Amino acid sequence: MVQSTIHKFAIGIDYGTQSGRAVLVDLTSGEEIADHVTSYPHHVIDERLPGSDRKLPMDWALQHPDDYLEVIRVSVPAVLKVGGVPAEDVIGIGIDFTACTILPVDSHGTPLCMLDQWKHQPHSWVKLWKHHAAQPEADRLNRAAAERGEAFLPRYGGKTSSEWMFAKVWQVLDEAPEIFEAADRFLEAADWTVFQLTGRMTRNSCTAGYKALWHKKDGYPNPEYLKALDPRLEHLASTKLRGEVMPLGTSAGGLNPEMAALTGLNPGTAVAVGVIDAHAAVPAMGVVTPGKLVMAMGTSLCHMLLHEEEKLVEGMCGVVEDGIIPGYFGYEAGQNAVGDIFEWFVEEAVPAYVKERAESEGMDVHPWLEREAALYKPGETGLVALDWHNGSRSVLMDTDLSGLIIGLTLSTKPQEIYRALLESTAFGTRKIVDTFERSGIAVDKLYACGGLPQKNRLLMQIFADVTNREIVVADSKHTTALGAAMFAATAAGEAAGGYNSIVEAAKHMAKVKEETFKPIPEHVRMYEELYQAYCELHDYFGRGGNDVMKRLKAMKKL
Ligand SMILES: Nc1ncnc2c1ncn2[C@@H]1O[C@H](COP(=O)(O)OP(=O)(O)O)[C@@H](O)[C@H]1O
Ligand SMILES: O=C(CO)[C@@H](O)[C@@H](O)COP(=O)(O)O
User: Fold this and answer.
1) Ranges for the Carbohydrate kinase FGGY N-terminal domain (predicted)?
2) For residue 251, what are the domain limits?
């Protein structure tokens, strides 16, 4: 039992792709007192809607909003019980979420997919961040913005993504105008969940800035541009995207009585505005100044970096003033599949004998492949792969691109392919690091968090060798949830026992391990050569000289 008379606590809730987790955190030390994970009962909906036989089209990825509430119903009381902390000592709740994960709601904030009238229409459901079926809309949006010289476009590296708010909303309008009409608003799932907790509908500056093209001074893209896309979009910003955009670390309101009863927390407990999962990890690793690239490594990989100036960086996801830490421009870049590529290989491509051998040694397939792959030196597999199995969110920003492995022979072993896939994701990060540096934004050190640094040491060593940079690793089981709890402490404020700024919270609560991954000079040299091969393939297939991947994808759709 914790000495609750001395300490105050906050709860961070991290909404990931497959599950949500709550973590009870001691605000004095950042110690994670208790954690609980709830897997989403409906998983990622990418085949059929619940209770329906109708197959969803390719590139769709939906979620059920009630799964988010299930995390609150189950995980929050669980951490309170295990932590043995009285409700009055929990001064704040903060949530971080995948993004851009959006849903249409009616005027009461009820998701349209929860209404009988609309539940059979796929467009009424939550579109998960990795719903990529809005690529045609993203292409049209980018073309029009480039032709009109829209000021927002350079801030997003010259291209906006099919994952983001405008492309997704436009897809709804294109394919289901009745849902577009019925939607009183389109909300980020982060904001909808905060609304459930508080009864107050706000928007957070982080998802608005990185995913909905919102700018602190300019606001959303102008109505003339939106009208040029489709006249029905002209007033989108002031209608279906309306709502006060609030800065990170502020309070969206107090916990409402129903949610207090459901969770066991006190009504009125401060609820912080939501934050993107990856961005929450930055202060949680103690990164509050430039030069340190934070990598949230899991299903996908998000790269976050701070800088004093706004610079234009090819293919970056976005730069937002105060987007992560007040006083700095926060940059985000990313790879939309990392763990997902390894999972694809293990689930879909590994031969049965590998699974049998791993099982006979009492091991999971991933660690078995890792151990075998570690027996090779850089280059010894003779393979190079492109990490585009889920498209490219990096400098090319194109979700129509696909994966590639070259160098296969009749003697290629599964562990060699696994190693090549690990390496391909490190090359993808190297491309991002080089692009930042070329744009005058220093990357001195890497900071890794998320599931992968805990799971795969070989991967981390390869990242250090390929980027020739030391990697600091988070010392937290749930770094993003810790970050969310830090924003909660800031929303509650110093008077309540929290902090007055996220920088102050980071000073006391951030945690990294002492052991780091350091580049091995011999490997660095070898990878320099392999990286050149990666770049040749990257430019050949990705820079427009050769459109074979797009042609293959078009055929597949037919
Ligand atoms: N030992 C491993 N090596 C490499 N990848 C792994 C390993 N174990 C799991 N993965 C991958 O890690 C990803 C999950 O990462 P995690 O950070 O836990 O989740 P999330 O991204 O949903 O927050 C999955 O894509 C899974 O395939
Ligand atoms: O896109 C972002 C952040 O901008 C992430 O929310 C998205 O890649 C999902 O992250 P996870 O890989 O599930 O941690």
Assistant:
1) 10-281
2) 9-141+162-212+246-278+478-510
Dist CA 379 CA 316 (whole Å):
29
| Domain tally, the chain | 1
Q: Which of 73, 43, 46 is nearest to 59 (CA)?
A: 46
Structure tokens at 111: 């998701």
Q: Is the CB of 96 under 6 A from ligand 2?
A: no
Pocket of ligand 1 contains residue 20 by CB under 6 Å: no
Report the nearest-CA residue for atom 9 of ligand 2: 98
Q: Say yes or no: CB of residue 456 within 6 Å of ligand 1.
A: yes
ipTM above 0.90, yes or no: yes
Please indicate, yes or no, if residue 417 is contained in any of the structural domains.
no
User: Does residue 171 fall inside a structural domain?
Assistant: yes
- H-run or E-run covering 92: strand 90-97
Ligand 2 nearest-atom number relative to CA 340: 12
Residues 548, 541 contacting (CB under 8 angstroms):
yes
Q: Is the CB of 189 under 6 A from ligand 2?
A: no
Give residue 316's region: left, alpha or beta (phi > 0; psi -120 to 50): beta
The size of the chain, in residues, is 558
Q: Is residue 168 part of a domain?
A: yes
442-498 residue pLDDT tens: 999 999 999 999 999 999 999 999 999 999 999 999 999 999 999 999 999 999 999
- 3-state SS class at 187: strand
